[in-house]
Design goal:
Length: 202
Amino acid sequence: MLREERDCLTPLPPHPYDIATFSQVRASRQFRVTLDTNRYSVPAEYAGEQLTMKVYTNRLCIYHQNKLIARHVRSYDRLKDFELPDHPKQLLAQRRKARNQKVFMRFLTLSEKADAYYKQLQQRRMNPLHHIRQIVGLSEIYGHEAVARAMEDAFAFQAFSCEYIANLLEQRARKLPEPSALHLTRRQDRGGSALPNYKPSL
């Protein structure tokens, strides 16, 4: 019978039959999807997006518009959270960018020359943002006016770094000892005149 039916047989599918169960899920604000009380991460940029989840006995795959964006080992524990290291990277980068922007805006309020000072830092320093952070921190210690004055001096001396600003602020904040009252003990010092010893002539 096999010889008779061979010509009628069709080839098997090139890929194994997909036994996964499909479901539509929405990622949370914490870029998580939930399965059986466990939470699995997706890349942070897909937070709030409608996604497709394919669940197998040993894994789950998450898609966005037919693009595979996450793959996890399926857990049969309860109330667990699983996050892949690469998934929060974009969120962390966005938060870092927002923090840096906030620091930069604070830096610009320190002086009318703050923007020009930053441009000089860009030309002369490998990491100008580091210097900006330090200078903003110095303004919280010494005050805006003192930092603005230090920037004015920096342009005069063409010295552009947080170390120069810190050194200048420290020197100006260092109080000199108050001079004590001057006590004069000799008549010459008090403004009087000393008469020389002599004998009057007879």
